[in-house]
């Protein structure tokens, strides 16, 4: 019986790299996690154990550190583009290179309104992401934000849904809406100023979330995507993943008390999970 | 400017359910995590906040618990098939239902060679998985195993790979090979005896890993997939994800000692990540 | 043979509670995790299965939610004091109540310099903590900060340490210093304005970390504690835990490049772990 | 104002080490995580930045790998004792050395009843632990087991507890009892055959858990500790930590169904947490 290799890829994941970029008067501190993934003509490695077309993942890791010295100087999109180009142009057997970078955000400490030149606070769940795919058909640039924990205490409800035999949920016109949002968007070709674009789009996402009168997570998700598409012609489409971080009113009636939408159980599991992609007509 | 909703889905994730199935003489204890995801005609929820076609994720959760009483009696594939069918047949606006179940394995305690009737040990990283997708085109049954931590201390090497400017890795004919393997396979239609099939396929995967003379992770991955396809005609294709859990020889030379392939640093990050799908010709 | 019960305790952990406190013009959103632990006369529960002196952990949980309505209105220290007092005064068999609260920090979103009235960002690793122990001897108030990820790119070195047979570390006068700091301090009795004190002490910790010319983690740790004790007479002693989040210069020499203290591997494991308590003479 | 350094310690944590021990006919694979912590005369490092009495944590790490070659050949208690002795005897400024080792369990794969000579399965949550403290007063040997997930589906109830205003829990004579148990015991001095002792004590813990008619977690905890003390004169005292992994009957009544103690929600948070130490009279 004959079998054959279909889709396959290999690479190095979780390459954790920090860089100090020294500017006059202050240091810029950057911390990223890089995943490299290569596709191409690797069949003989699988079927015959022939490694002559395999660039070891250890070498991929070394390459990330080495190229960071000259080429990681601005946005993660720029560095990811350089890395993808490096693997595609130096390795003829590679037909597609995927570079996925997550940036861990550090902010300079603020004392009396002034930023300290070289001391930072990090640790936020929110991360910036870039995903570059380069192959013969071209290069796609995907940018995004991950694990952005946002919450609103009102202007959110959920009513008029289907009721069936298994329904116990009560309708509410006023609930907490919270999500650990993932948003990622494809650009129409290359862009100048990825960081500015990122900051602007992030602000639009937050503002739309904050001011939207939400009738459902779905509606808020769509509004957030729509706002980005309407304001940024550079964006081709946007995908959002919005797990519902439920805050359930705690029942105080057994204790003769009235919970006026003020005391909640915050739960992690189970969670509603709403995803969608918004694109141009 | 016009925008439109593309791909979208919603559902309840991480529904953690335990069941006691009482047999004469002993209890069977089962613990699963269920994810439900629905696709269909939900555009008005996104664009107008119209929830009349939305079956709340809370109701989905209730449905999982309620249907488990009658219908979670054997393999997770069977229960997932029932759940998918329930949502498709009772919700006309749903065009596709995806049920993803992870089973946490518990074994009855063994004392003097005899299984205790109702006491168990759990906690293994290894989990059994089932993924059912049902839509107008039919139903696919995907089964698998997740986070299976396997390791061999010899019969594994990595040599004759590409060397370039950034190569520092040394070739070796004898190394530790370890991976936290994910394997999942599609069946050709429905199968009777999912648990027997699962156990047999799991054994074939382990045996192939153990006895293979590995020249690379890629080669071992392919051999594992090939063995399954060759032995189980019910399997249409199989995908494997094999992160390389590196065990790097610790350099003892600075201390005047010789590390004869015996002392290793076990690292989690960065890690090589090798994936592939094997199918029939 | 006789055995006896020594130290023992029980309680409910991980009670996740959110509260909306409605102020004119804006909402205050608070999220906390509460651990309750009780010690006392519980021997008969252990030795005889007599539960008549056991207040179930489920009831402890309910009590936390119920009392939050009236009594969680300001600092977590105040709420923890109320909870401890509740258990001590209503349960005569309880000799000691320990309440441990972790607060997850949420900030109101900022648009054009103005805080939104009811939309928030959360997700920071940094958390505020309170630990109250109440027994016949009195009540101790411990406050703190947890998982505060701080980093400086210079003004840190490590030299002149012991060298032995197993030394390979190179001395450096200029390295990255990073830690995910835990700091907690005991107050001399009760304090008015726990939140103001917390904010001030936090600022002192950050400032000392930022401006200290560090010769070792130990020296920085001591300086941070010393600064707090010198500036806040209300503080009796302070303990710091400073895991060293190593950023190791990546060796670029094999590639003919010179790493001028700019490219680093960020590692999580293994890590140096430095702890100390500073007190008054 | 004068401040002084009180308790302090430093060391290297999370030193992940693997070892292959080659026996005739098969390989033994061992994987451990080592924490080293030193106390002693380190005041000048804190107050003056004088590192001349500091053995760097990097050197501690190297020492663990180097000494593993000759001295990690049997139980983790033996290796930990050797490491503690090394630091105490070679570093006069060190007054106390604490070595904490966690062993990750790997089992040889079993095919047709025969163990494969060099292929293993790992991944269990259950881990074996050793904690050695050596100082001028002597050496204590603490052994244990961590994250042992055990569960019984009957022979467990919880009744006759205190009811107050905040009680909603229903009494039950038949519930699931599950815990991710931590057990650790001090030996009376040194022991020969730590692994045999460990295996025997582990078996006693499991057996007592399985056969005990439990009226509360407290009672089961005490019974488990008592059984160990009664059967193993080498054990001085034993501590158990038993988080209650609740399995709560799901209420099917709203759906016109009757949950006959068969369908449960498995929850991680909040959880009851019961701890106790049992010692000899």
From TrEMBL, chains A, B, C, D:
SUPFAM superfamilies: Tetrahydrobiopterin biosynthesis enzymes-like. GO terms for biological process: purine nucleobase metabolic process; urate catabolic process. Pathway: Purine metabolism; urate degradation; (S)-allantoin from urate: step 1/3. 5-hydroxyisourate binds at residues 57, 158, 175, 217-218, 244. The keyword Nucleotide-binding does not apply. The active site is at residues 12, 57, 246. The keyword Oxidoreductase applies. Coiled coil: none annotated. Its EC number is 1.7.3.3. Keywords: Oxidoreductase, Purine metabolism. It catalyses: urate + O2 + H2O = 5-hydroxyisourate + H2O2. GO terms for molecular function: urate oxidase activity. O2 binds at residues 57, 244. Gene3D superfamilies: Urate Oxidase (3.10.270.10). Urate binds at residues 57-58, 158, 175, 217-218, 244. It comes from the Bacteria. PANTHER family: URICASE. NCBIfam families: urate_oxi. Belongs to the uricase family. Catalyzes the oxidation of uric acid to 5-hydroxyisourate, which is further processed to form (S)-allantoin. This is Uricase. It comes from Chitinophaga tropicalis. The gene is pucL.
